[in-house]
Amino acid sequence: MSFSILHPIRLRPSIMRFVSRDSSKLCIVVSPLAIAAIIKCLFVRDFDPGIDILKSALLPRGGWYISVFAILLPTKIVVMEHVFFSDVSVHTGKKMASLLAKEFGISRVIDLLTYYPRRYICRGKLTKLSELIPGDEVTIVGRVLSTEQRKTFSGANFLSVTLSDGENIIQLVFFHQPWRAENLKPGACGLFSGKVTEFNNKKQLSHPEYELFSSEPTREQIQKWNEQIIPIYRACIACPSWKIARAVDLALEAVKGQTVDFMSGNYGYMSVEKAFYVIHHPTDNEELEAAKESLRFFEAFLLQSALLHRKRFRNRASATPFIRKNGGFLERFDARLEFSQTNDQLRAADEIFEDLSLSEPMTRLLHGEVGSGKTLVAIRAMLLAADNDMQAVLVAPTEVLAKQHHRNLTRMLGHELCAEIQPSLLLGREKHTLRIASGRSKIIIGTHSVFSKKTVFHNLALVVIDEQHRFGVGQRDELLLKGDSPHLLMLSATPIPRTVALSLLNFIAISEIKTPPSGKAEISTHVVPLAEKPQWGREVIRRISEEIQKGHQVFVVAPVIEQSRTGAASISALLRELEETPLLQGAKISRLHGKLTAAECEKSMEEFSCGASDILLSTTMIEVGIDVPNATAMVIVSADRFGIAQLHQLRGRIGRGNLPGVCLLVTNAPEGSAARSRLDLVARTHDGFSLAEIDMKMRREGDLLGLGQSGQGNYRLLRLDEDLQVLSDARLHAEGIMENDIKLEKNKLLRLFLSQYLSGTNLSRLLS
Question: CATH 3.40.50.300 in the chain, residues?
Answer without folding.
Answer: 329-513, 523-698
